[in-house]
Design brief:
- Helix 2 crosses helix 3 and helix 8 runs parallel beside helix 9.
- Strands 7-6-5-10-13-16-17 form a 7-stranded parallel β-sheet, with helices on both faces. It has a 3-stranded antiparallel β-sheet with strand order 1-3-2.
- It starts with a helix and ends with a strand.
- 39% of the residues lie in helices and 26% in strands.
- 34% of the residues are buried.
- It has 10 helices and 17 strands.
């Protein structure tokens, strides 16, 4: 195998597994560990990888923590595109959950103006405020509890206890990061993650609503396994290697 072919193969492994070890690659390709280190050094110049002791990992950005209020005005066109796709998933007479998500705020507005008859349960204050100012055919249920002012939503034990009484037809969940190689969704705050998880465990269908850039972002707390969701609704499809992994998890990209 030529060096260029080996480097490409190493990159494919990184995209699939998220990390590689020098010792394992040396054995796989029957070359010295020093040769593999040179390959990784060459690879580092053309793709975002991070050299670590004994190997390398595919570099993922740590998402800066912005409050919901700060994010409301960002990437509106992209979020509307995602919300419109999510809107098409909602049928009359369903009971759905709208998580704290700026995409879901746009989705809520579309649903409010649609004439659809639904029950919407939400823990997002901005969505609750929206429905007080628009005529609609929707029964809106507030999942109360302790207000987290940063995300402007209710999270934590009392919220989870309330939500445990529901069985949702569909839930639309926001996320901070989508780590496909590690098979997980990530978020900043534990209480927020635990609240999301409780909803997802009580949902017949789970839809993650997220901008495509979230495939490259990480947050501190892993709150759910990707292979337990039904679909990711996003603005652009990820690369072919990521799609292949998602196919293995039986996840649809919308």
């Amino acid at each position: 195998m030529f060096a260029e072919e080996r480097i490409q193969d190493i990159l494919d492994t990184l995209k699939k597994d998220g990390k590689v070890k020098v010792k394992d690659l040396s054995t796989k390709y029957s070359v010295t560990e020093d040769c593999i280190r040179k390959d990784l050094k060459a690879l580092e110049k053309i793709v975002p990888i991070k050299r670590i002791y004994g190997g390398a990992v595919l570099h993922r950005e740590s998402l800066a923590y912005h409050s919901t209020k700060q994010r409301l005005g960002e990437n509106i066109d992209i979020k509307r595109k995602i919300a419109e796709k999510a809107f098409d998933m909602v049928n009359n007479m369903e009971t759905i959950f709208l998580d704290v998500s700026t995409v879901n705020l746009i989705l809520a507005e579309l649903l409010a103006k649609s004439g659809k008859k639904l029950t919407i349960v939400t823990n997002m204050v901005d969505i609750l405020n929206l429905f007080t100012n628009i005529d609609h055919n929707i029964q809106v249920v507030s999942a109360g509890g302790i207000l987290n002012s940063t995300i402007n939503g209710f999270v934590g034990a009392s919220t989870i206890d309330f939500l445990s009484n529901y069985k949702f037809d569909k839930s639309f969940i926001g996320t901070g990061g989508i780590d496909v190689p590690s098979n997980c969704l990530t978020i900043f705050e534990i209480d927020d993650g635990l609240t999301k998880k409780s909803v997802m465990e009580n949902s017949r269908e789970i839809y993650v609503v997220a901008e495509s850039k979230k495939f490259a972002f990480d947050c501190a707390y892993q709150f759910y396994s990707l292979d337990n969701i039904d679909a990711i609704i996003t603005d652009e499809k990820p690369d072919s290697d990521t799609i292949k992994l998602l196919d293995e998890y039986n996840i649809t990209i919308v």
